[in-house]
Amino acid sequence: MSLTSIAENPKPGSTIFSPELAARFDKLVTLYPRRRSALIPMLLYAQDEIGYVSDAAIAEIGQRLDITVLDVRNVLTYYSMLRTKPVGKYNVQVCTNISCMLRGGQEILAHCKDRLGIGHKETTPDGLFSLEEVECIGACSWAPAVQVNYDFHEELTPESMDALLDEYRSKASQ
Amino acid sequence: MADVTLTVDGKTITAPAGTLLLEACRKVGIEIPAFCYYPGLSLQAACRMCLVRIEKMPKLQTACTTQVTEGMIVATDTDEIHQARKAMLELVLANHPLDCPVCDAGGECELQDMTFKYGAGGSQFVEIKNHREEQQWSPVVFFDRPRCILCYRCVRVCNEGMDVAALGIQQRNSGSVIAPNDQTQLDCEQCGMCIDICPVGALTSDTYRYKTRPWEMTHVGTICTHCGDGCKTTLGVRRSDDGMQIVRGDNRDKSGLNGEFLCVKGRYAFDFANNEERLTQPLVRQPNGEFAPVTWEDAIKIVAQKFRVARDDRGGASIGVIGSTRNTNEEAYLLQKVARSAFGTNNIDHHRTTDYVALTRALAGKKHRMASIADAGSAPAIFVLGNDPTEQHPLLAWNLRTNVRHNSARIYLANHRDIKLQRQAKSSIQIPADGYAAFARFLGGEENSVFGEDAKALRDALRNEPSLLIVFGSELRGSAIDALAEFGLSLPDTKFACLGDYVNSRGAADMGLYPDLLPGYVPIEQEGGLRAEYGGRMSQQAGLDVAQMFEAAARNELAVLYVVGDDPAERLGVDADALRNTFVVVQDMFMTATAKLADVVLPTSNLYEKSGTVTNTFGDLQLVKKAADRAGVRSDLELIVRIADTMGEDVHALVPFGKGVRADMGQSRGVQSGEADRHGIWLAAHNLEPKLSPFDPNAVLDEIQRLVPGYNFDRMELLAGTSQHVDADGSGVMEISRFANRPDGAMPSADTLFTSGTLGHYSEKLNEVETFQAKKSMVAAD
Predict the structure, then answer these.
(1) Mean pLDDT in consecutive groups of 10 residues from the start of chain A, 174 residues
(2) Is ipTM strictly over 0.85?
(3) CA nearest to B150, candidates B200, B97, B206
(4) Domain end among A52, A85, A118
(5) A69 and B181 in contact by Cβ < 8 A?
(6) A–B: how many Cβ contacts below 8 A?
(7) Are residues B30 and B115 in the same domain?
(8) pTM of the model as a whole
(9) Which of B54, B570, B603, B719 has the highest count of CB atoms within 10 angstroms of its CB?
(10) Given an 8 Å threshold on Cβ–Cβ distance, is B165 in contact with A73?
(11) Which one of B264, B423, B776, B778 would you mutate to disrupt binding with A, by most A Cβ within 10 Å of its Cβ?
């Protein structure tokens, strides 16, 4: 009986992650009473390093935690902040939950779509920007808010949004 | 635990502390509906159908996860609860397609039943339902996402019951979806438990989907014809052009010794019965070497005449008889009786897959040492030596897993391979493939440097078990079994079981399909009072075993070979030349390798098309009920009787029908038995003796019960469908010195989950699954 997890597992000892991250994972799994409790942080860190959670990352994480690939996918697909496909260099996440909606979040989203020429969960052809409509990001007091990768930008208008996108574009070309 | 008293709907009820409220209510007849709750599996509380009002609790509570407590006051039958159930159903139905008229589950769907009973005839949803296309996950499993109600039963039974974990839940909320483990396919044991446990039609099987409706079939609970565990399978049969066709096998009738469980073979590998290659006409080899169809009368006349001439001219010893491991006890018994009493030969054998004889002899005179398969589900400690139960004895493996999960049973393993059961084992050691006999002696205290510290620790652990079940595979035979039994008997309380391969391997052995043993393992020298029954032709000289019969044939010493439901030619690689001077009669369903060498081939019915009893490898005797029917074939029982009759034998002496014995009331006659049932009941009610025919297996069963040691079971219970454990005590076997070095002649079949001897070749579904699995393991090996 070949169960998938065994079939897809990489060779023990080899890793697809950087030495630093691999070391971090080695420590992480010792912090919890049950190894599998480290699953969500591992997925997040893997995504930060690779840009998304690749099949290889899933296999290695499964092996590190002694759970099946299916177990990893069950958790991975639950969270919309975890992705299994690459995104652009800057992932623009526009909040359209109630506070942002009342303060113009929808307009910001429409403006981004127009300006970048892409829709929800799409990436520009140059791979620079991805756009995502997200639920509340906890910045209601400063709505409308946008999160680009891990940075927050608040009280935006279409104009300041333009400036923001330009700023990222020039940052990328440096 | 102490009992607590609580009030449900004004009724005072008592239940042991710790009981789930839902169970406590069901026990006293208060129904609480639930989808996700399933006895024996972990609790989920996903479907919210079992909501009840408990006084002093702020919100409605799920009865499936609430334990009863003293003084609890519960309401299950109020407007509030009615409304809650209706609302829950409305949510469940929000995305559920109303395709009941074409859905496989229509008519036996829990969601249908609940909707009828608890309401939600209309819906407040105006949105378009989510639809997703059906998916085929394996040759047997299909998934229709829209019908799924997310009860997680399939996920839990696969995880917990099967320990396969091939199913998961992905996405979330109303987008949640059951997902297979290998991207879009299942990499699993293909047992179909997920389909059986699905309350709706989300998981369906390829063999049954869109074929018929549940109410158009007749459902017959009989015994699976494949491995030696003897699970009860419910066959759904439907009238077809040439008889009654099996359309479905499942576990709808959970009354068998297998409870919830059924494997891929029990569920899908009935299709050999519908194979187009089935023989339906007697064939006789013509002078030109070709087979030609003849009438039954002619075929039987030819066979009977050849048998009689061989016996009269060349003596009984010139006749060889090979029986089957898939026929009923009645057929096996009658075959050896005809051979001994009518043919005058002891050249009787069958495909032996393990050494029941050695175990019986080792336990001679000791009562209640043979285990039932149920013991594997309840014994506190089990030692499995050899075998791979997951592959070869799926029910045993299920019982062991369940026992560990529910009762924290301790499982000890010693095997030369890595086997899946190691995951449940408390301790597991590896021994050399040729080291089983030495290991058995090592357990008994013979030190051996091959076995290290882990083996010693295992031995010590076994010695400290107050009660132990020892189950061993065919790796152990002959004196190795003696050594193991000696070790086991030195412990305070030990039971044994020996694993043979086919549904009636044990029955064939118990019924005396041996050249040197009579029914009940009585040595031929002792004749056990059978001579008076069997008549003067019976010889006390041991006969030939299968291999010796073919050797005798090659030496021109075998005039006749009568093969009933076996394929020795394939197993032993016999060539046509060896049998050129032997008249070969084969009774089989298919043109097997042996049938191709025959002079006469008589097409027979299989276990699903006949009645009688079988004994599983643990010695659990069960009733086989006739489910299907195929025009043109005869049961082996009927053919044996007719051949003997045509030979001029006294059929009344052979089959004691009409001797004032207890009669069949129609239980054995299958789905068309309504008439017979009423007739039998009327006769019984008027104190008249129901007439038996010589083809009635119950007449033979009477003689088995009367004459075969160990077969003194409760007849009423057996007919009612309860398995009866038989325990041949082997008391007659003790003092025979030749037993010490008796060759066991066993050829284990090495079947896997997806093969089933010769019969397996004719099951298209089993072959398809095997190919599918083989591809998977090839990919895995890359």
Answers:
(1) 43 83 96 95 96 95 95 94 93 96 96 96 94 94 94 96 95 86
(2) no
(3) B200
(4) A85
(5) yes
(6) 47
(7) no
(8) 0.91
(9) B603
(10) no
(11) B776
